[in-house]
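RECORD TYPE: protein structure
NAME: Tyrosyl-DNA phosphodiesterase-domain-containing protein
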Amino acid sequence: MAEHRAADINGEEDEEEALRIAIALSLGKDPNSTSIDLTQDDEPAPPPAPALAPQPVTTAAPSSSLSALGLDRKKMEEERLARQNKRKASELGSGTVAEAARPQQRQKTNDNAPRTLSTVVPSPAPMAASLPFPQGVVKKTWVYGQPRLGDDIKIEEVLQKDKLELAVLSSFQWDNEWLMSKIDFKRTKITYVAFAANEAQREEMRSSVPPSRIRFCFPPMLAQGSMHSKLQLLKYANYLRIAIPTGNLVPYDWGETGVMENMVFIIDLPRFENLEQQREAQALKLTPFAEDLFYFLAAQGLDDSLVSTLQKYDFSETKRYAFVHSMAGSHSGESWKRTGESAFDRLRGMKLTVQHPGYCGLGRAVSALGLASEGDIELDYVCASLGAVNYDLLRGLYFASQGDSGLKEYQLRTTTRKGKTVSGGYDDVETLNKHIRVYFPSLQTVKESRGGKNNAGTICFQSKWWAAESFPHQVLRDCQSTRKGVIMHSKVMFVRQSGSRTGQSKGFAYVGSANLSESAWGRLVKERGTGSPKITCRNWECGVLVEALPQPDIDLGGNSSEIHDDLSSFAGRLRVPLPMKLPPQALGRDRTPWFYMDG
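PREDICTED:
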């Protein structure tokens, strides 16, 4: 009986009855269940994730108490009654039900664009041509009050609430009331990848939600660090959507307050039409993107069965991308060379190469895409937070963006004698200052923004780090959005070869969750006892590399060093919109960075 009634929730039209059943189930014994299958929404939900004993973390900005996302049953019932009363009042007044049915009424935009895409309805039969983004796309997030120019997307258009069957959601910050207005919890099964300080908090989070609809995954953590990844896996009737946003699951990160913007990568993967197609695909080597993604999900502790169902989707179009990630913890010894066996490997009957996290993984991904470069490169990095940055970190990212595995920076650093690197006369500091630009907003830019200083609390940098002698002051630039008055929370890196006159020169963009910090990208050091390299990352992060398209007939003309080194000349070859104004102003004494703790 319990199983039958749980299944009824997905198709129940009576909201009150559906919520009553969900609450009853959450208070009683969990129905017999196995796992979430990303191709079937009529199967039971998975059992609670096993305890992974994560430790407390230090966060850079306040986040909503997850109290399991605040999804306590009493509050859910109160909110439902409020919505019901609001709907009845609207029906008696204007007769308009659609607007009143929204859980939370928000200010209307001044644009005429619909809230959902009109082209996202797939045909009943799996067909890649009918998918919204079969080859992948990068878009800015929509911002209230800003014109829609075709390069932005709303959270409603990403999630597609009316069609969403299953979802795996990750975030550093959460707004549960807002999220409940974007997802139909009656029809959509959810797995939240979230942080919990201890087992007691995990149990509190699990017990405060209907277990037939919502599950949790708690990745292992270090004593300091963040579950900063924002990956989304969204399952629909005949395809899987992978979304990698730079923003969290809060309204201001998705433009609804009109003060902040982000970016998001989206790709839609069709489901195989039959078992024969699936077996043919399994006989081939995984794309690097798929291999990294599967390894990352398994390392986070997602249910084995959930990860294995990803095999039922065609990842062939991800061959043009790379999935770059950081995993909280230390990675050393044989993990640099050996082949790792994860739970997913056992299910698939194959082994996955152990993936290097952090900037070591970035270098491996650049090389795997054929984008490695021996010459100088230009690196422009837009970020929302800065840590205690030094030239070691910049050097590691610079070499990784050339395709190095991380050992080049490690060897330069560990062979230092009296402050001078043994590098054959290679003046790396001068090179880094010349070829790297890091974009972060100035105090003036924040003060003049639409939201002002009170709305920039998630843009993080401390004055003590700026004042440090080791900080690379010369690389900082003022980050000003192309949208007037909007602050950027995006994390995006643009890399291309220096001084090239040809449209075939190599280049790429990174879009993801990683800010410019050692916590996000890691640090390679010698392991005690063995003396072998070990990289430690404090955060869980993920992003995607997007290759620049070649343009063999392009005519740059003029002075190549002036034109090609200007990022605007590179923009036409990217499938990533440039979010910042060019040319940027340097930060310094006359134009200081924004320090969120100073107000």
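COMMENT: The mean pLDDT is 78.
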